[in-house]
Every structure is written in C-alpha cells, then in structure tokens.
Amino acid sequence: MTDSPHDNPTDPFDDDHDAEDMGEPSNPAEHSIQVNFGRPMPLFPLDQVALLPQQVLPMHIFEPRYRQMVENVLDTNGQFALATFEGDEWKDQYHARPPLKPAVCIAHIVQHEKLPDGRYNIIVQGICRARILRELPVRDRREPGEPGHGEPGVHYREAILEPVGIEQPQNQDEHQDLADVRSKLDDLLSTGPLLRMNIAGSLLDYVRNFEIPLTAVLELVAFSLVQPQTLRYRLLEEPAALERANLILHELDHLSRLITKAQTQHDAVAGDQLPKGCTWN
Q: Most buried of the four, 98, 170, 191, 252, by CB within 10 Å?
C-alpha cells in the first residue's frame, strides 16, 4: 500500500475542498523559495498527479522508505518531487523501480508532525514544475556533506531534475494574450454556468486581484477545477503559461456545458418533463 494524500489515497478531489483547503496562490516576488537543481532530488511517485504548483496538499507518510525521505529532507531544504507512475507496471513492481513519467512537481514541506510510531503527517505546497533528466542508482552510503554521512544509504528513489516553465519576459503580444485570458476567466466565473459552483466566488476574487500574477491564478484554477488525470499531467508538463491557459479555458468551457446539461435534466425531472424515450427510476 502506497503513502498517499491524507485521508484520500485515490482522489485528491472531494466535495469538502474549498479555497482554504487549496491554499492562496503566493506572489513569487514576495515568497521566493530556491531549488538546487544541481543536487539529487528525492522522488515520491504516485499513480496520479496529486500536486500542481501553488497547490497545498496534506499527506500521510507511513512507508519506511518515505519516512526516511521526510526525515532527510527536513534536515535539509524540505523539498522532494512528486512524480507519477508510467502505465500500470507499478501495481506489480511497486516495491521495485517501476517506470515514471518525466514531469514532476517539486514540493516544499510547510508543516509536519512526527507521530510516536515514526509516521508523519505533512502539508506540502507545490513550488514549480521540473523534469527528470536521469534517475540515480541506489546509494549504499550517504555522501560527504549529507546528513548522516557514512550511514546506510537512502531507500527511496532520487533523480537529477531540470526546471520547466521558467517564465521569460513577455513580448507585447503575449502580454495582451494573457490579459485576455484573465478577462475570459472573469466572464466564465461571473456570468456563466460555472457561477453555480461553490468555489466560483473565491476563484473570482483571485482572478480580479491584479496583485496576484496571472500565472499563479492559472495554477489555482487548474488544481481547483481540473480533475481529468490526463489533462492534469498535460498542465504539469507544459512549460508555456499561455498554452496552459488555453488548456484550462477549454476545460472550463467543457465544465460549463456539463453543468448546463445537468441543470436541463434537473429541470426536466422537477417538471416531470422527461426526455423522449427516457424513464427515471
């Protein structure tokens, strides 16, 4: 059994999530966290994309190798990478080294609690996107300068990563395109079917807060509303903010159509106006 997002190992989305659960997007200029891409990064693989940048996620850590990982990263920079298994081989090879998809999200431990039996409850926040360049072989001994130097090596997986999606200065066209995205998000959340969602009001507040960069707003909308795992991974691996914005807008249009269809069916039931050929049992 794998360690997992707290209380829900198979689905990080549930009906009780709200804006406070997900965390407020931070301004990168105000909260700068450094990542050393020159050193090995611990890997925590899951069968789904459980974390996107800016997202806050509670996790329960009980496997011995990941307890060791948490203890080690707490002695250093508090960072590890949440990875995703490639295919279904992990189900039979979980305790070996099943293949991983290249895109990962670097997580920073913002709160932790060590339980008497050695398990951990932690809260992490996604920092940034990265890509696995190469995975490292198992180390029998820890290296000089590393906590516990000379002690037995690590039991979890490690890799050398490279950053993905480091924002470059935008030209005038890109700046205008992203400004248009903010306007479209405002329209979708304030006037369309998405307004029926409980979280729409909180998201709209972030969209209209121009002190929060649009890139951070996009991350918030993505982990709040985007549920299909294939799309979540596409958002994780995509380096360009404008491309991520287009993916998100397309998904919000899809959600709007689903909500409209559901409301139409609800109204039909309420009025006993059943679609031709259908019965409700």
A: 252
